[in-house]
Amino acid sequence: MTDTHTAPIAIREVTLAWSDDLALDLDFMDDTHREFVDLLAATELADDETLIERFSALIDHTDDHFGREDQWMKDTQFSSSNCHTSQHDVILQVMREGMRRGKENGDLAMVRQLAHELGIWFPQHAQTMDAALAQHLQRVGYDAETGIVSAPEALPAGEIHGCGG
Questions:
Q1: What CATH number was assigned to the domain covering residues 25-154?
Q2: Of 59, 96, 99, 118, which one is least surrounded by beta carbons within 10 A?
Q3: What is the pLDDT of residues 4-60, one digit of tens each?
Q4: Which helix (H) or strand (E) segment is 161 a member of?
Q5: Burial class (CB in 10 A: 0-12, 13-18, 19+), 47
Q6: Are the CB atoms for 73 and 133 separated by under 8 Å?
Q7: Where are the domains of the chain?
């Protein structure tokens, strides 16, 4: 008799799925956020053989995503010294360290935990820091394609520093 029993496959779940609760009513920002959520889900659902590849794609997207937001802030007088940009820097640093450990040490459990934690962190970041940025971009009439501000009179008198004050 042949044993056809195989080891159980780990059932993976995503921590975060796109929903209207994450939408900020600014298409160019929502599209970027939707892509982040999709790549995060792909990372969480990845098998061990593709986990590092998926996490690498998430890091690449996140680096570009944060870079765009940071540029939007600069274009509209949110200073690069604000806490929003600082949070971006910390998240990318942690993600890159996770990638290093995953590649060098084979610590896939840590990469999976990091992906899970990103799914917990992201909604709060989007609904606070990104929501404030989205409102600001709408108020000044910012065009992400051209970098043009159509309502310069709505720009702050000076750069916004700290956490928006």
A1: 1.20.120.50
A2: 96
A3: 444 445 678 999 999 999 999 999 999 999 999 999 999 999 999 999 999 999 999
A4: none
A5: exposed
A6: yes
A7: 25-154
